[in-house]
Amino acid sequence: MTEIPARTAAPYELGGFWDEMFQPDGRPRPQYAALAAKLLTLSPGEVDQRQRAAELSFEARGITFALKAGPDGLDKIIPFDLVPRVITREEWTYIERGLEQRVRRSTSSCTTSITSRRSCAPA
Looking at the whole model, is its pTM more than 0.85? Predict the structure, then answer.
């Protein structure tokens, strides 16, 4: 395993809460080590600038939702995190099993509905 430089310790107080990137002792979780090292080369201003650029890109592409319908409605961008969520193989396997189960259940519900001449509604 690669030694993680001390500079990649959590740059903020974890406060006893779960953090996807950092372990309770402040070290990055193994799947985040390379990303943490890269992010920590950026200044807070650079991170803010990249966040703003991403938000402007979302807005320009219409990746928004309306807070209030009608002409007086306010469009907001879809909330997102600039830092990606890194998923391990084990986590993905778990997620994948759940997704497959949901698809099978939805497909089964649709088949039953179609057979009984009712419309197919989400399960």
Answer: no
